[in-house]
Amino acid sequence: MKNSKHSVLLVEDEEGVRQNIAQYLRLQDIHVLEAENGKIAFELYEDAAPDLILTDVSMPVMDGLTLIEKIRDIDEEVSIVVLSAHSEKEKLFRAVKLKLVDYVIKPITRANLKALLKKTLYSKQIIDLGCEYTYDMHLRVLKKENKAIELSLQQTQLMHILVRNKGHSVSSEDIFFEIKDDYSLEYNSASIRNMIKRVRILLPKGMIKNIYGGGYVLNSVQEREDLEFSFYDTQDEAVIIYNSEHQIVYANEAMFKIFHYETLQELQNRTINSFTIPIEYSKLEEAEKLDEQSINKIHFKRKDSSLFLAKVHSKCSYIDGMDLRVLSISAQP
């Protein structure tokens, strides 16, 4: 996960040149990741998701243009600037096709670097989240229709983490320890789920998505292709959605609270029948014969195998191109 400040991946095989550029960037309060070749750089890129990549062209092991081609195969958004002593037309033409921000001929001056930072990092302070929502990375202010939305300190920290990693999954555990800033604490996933729930209320539905494995990703609303699932994210009753093979494809936050599960990963390869008892299987199967049906009393099993009685609403639904069954489960006293 990225650091709180801007991060730059600097790829340069000449140590003296790399150190001079890195020193200037650090003086600008920028987190610098250094690599001496494209192979090391790609590993750092995958791990850290930097805001900007500055790379030489001619390097051992893997050259700069090959590095950029690998990155562009999976990421068309990150800003990339080539720093090169070469000006051959063939290399310039190949570089242009890789959607670069700039191609700068060495030697690189501080004036060059200052202009690059202004063009890349500092022009991206205001992030458009869609539906007239914006986030100011510098001031850490969330706005709707240009009016600030009041956030608590922890909500602001959470929002900043999600926006900073926009489009990338962030684990619940990473969020917890960055906000708490104390690795001696015991990880508490419930506190992050509650925080996510409160922030979701302030944003358009579907902007924060649950990821299998217990993580979260924030996308602009226009980028979401699965808004149908997001409708259930803030429901108070547990929602389990499964396919024709009875396999679970989605569960909302309330399901975790009621069934005592921690992550979506624990539900992978599970069937709906594994959450109830054999005598109740027939009730669910009968409900599946109708487009919509309510079952007043049915027993479900929590993670620790304890039982609870619930009222169930079973509904056939067509979501994301699939015929699915949606169970809304309300625990009864």
Can you characterise this structure?
- It is a single chain.
- The chain has 333 residues and is α+β, with helices and mostly antiparallel strands.
- Helix 2 runs parallel beside helix 3, helix 6 packs across helix 8 and helix 7 packs across helix 8.
- Strand 8 and strand 9 form a beta hairpin.
- The chain has a five-stranded parallel β-sheet, sandwiched between helices. Strands 14-13-17-16-15 form a five-stranded antiparallel β-sheet. Strands 6-7-8-9 form a four-stranded antiparallel β-sheet, covered by helices on one side.
- It is elongated, with a radius of gyration of 24 Å.
- Helix content is 31%, strand content 27%.
- The chain is built from eleven helices and 17 strands.
Give the neighbour order of strands across the main sheet: 2-1-3-4-5
Number of strands: 17
| End-to-end CA span | 42 Å
Radius of gyration: 24 Å
Helix/sheet category = alpha+beta
Estimated share of beta-strand residues: 25-35%
| Main sheet summary | 5 strands, parallel
Principal-axes geometry comes out as elongated
Please report the number of helical segments: 11
Helix and strand run: EHEHEHEHEHEEEEHEHHEEHEEHHEEE
Q: Give the helix level as a range of percent.
A: 25-40%
Mean pLDDT: 83
Poorly predicted parts: 223-227
